[in-house]
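A protein record in our archive is deliberately plain, so that people and models can read it alike. The tokens are whole numbers drawn from a learned vocabulary of local backbone shapes. For reference, a complete record is included directly beneath this paragraph.
>
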Amino acid sequence: MAIKVVHHGLATTVQDLGRPGYFHLGIPVGGAMDRYAMRAANLLVGNDEGAAGLEAVFMGPQLEFTADALVAVTGADMPVKIDGVDQPGWTALKVKAGQKLSFDFLNSGARICIAVSGGIDVPVALGSRSTYPIGALGGYKGRPIQAGDELPVGEGSLASEGRSVDPGLRRVPGKLAELRVLPGLYWHRLTEAAKETFFADEWKVANEADRMGYRFKGGRKLDLVEREQPFGAGSDPSNIVDSCYPYGSIQVPGGTEPIILHRDAVSGGGYFMVGTVIAADMDLIGQLQPHTPTRFVKVDMDQALAARADEAVRLERLRVTLKS
């Protein structure tokens, strides 16, 4: 079976849960920006959680099916249509051969995940089918899909249609997004006043928000303590001797606009990092639209681990619900 791409949408790529283990070589983990949504979509159609699906940002694709299939769309609120008829999101839907899956205008959130029974069966590259466009690695020919492409689909059983994820198990951004941050190794580079304003100010997602990272603007400039320029570091006070960038780390070039490094970000560089967004909140970032008001919330390691445990409980509830 293959899916014909009638229209590619906007930056629609094949993604799964990523390719961990190569960050030390400069190859990012990649994978779906909202991993929970991708897991949910796959479970709804009877796939393994790590099967490859499609991720679309801001605008959905139009896809024609050449055989009967089960599909599910999760993540952002982007109305789903089959042959022009409205369908519910976060639900297992039956699509017949010859029918077309399409989408209306985005209501909230930023990214949808589309799972198809059997999964998108593109070749595995370094343990994953995820697309890393900058490196032309994985996915469909190493790039976003285009009109005229035919996406191969694996063999899969048609699980029960109509199953849905309870609204209480769906996580969506609020009108004011809150991202929990664990201060990092370079926190001491900020003045005491800057440490307070970083968490006190309201920031907004800038237009530069993609799979590599999210820039934030609107808060006060972060002043750095005076220092003697280290050998090997740039002259700007925000420069450091090149260091590894943890996934989710927040760099602030020039102390002006924080940038959260996301799935396809580089693994190292010469800007200091104020801290790292906790793992439990990384999916949420992928659903933030430009201009979304955002606050950073300071947490300690115990709070970060507790949040991760809470997310693990929510994921297990999802699994139990959809596999029962």
Remarks:
- The chain has a mean pLDDT of 95.
- Helices lie at 35-44, 192-200, 282-285, 301-323.
- The CA atoms of residues 203 and 218 lie 5 Å apart.
- Residues 301-323 form the longest helix (23 residues).
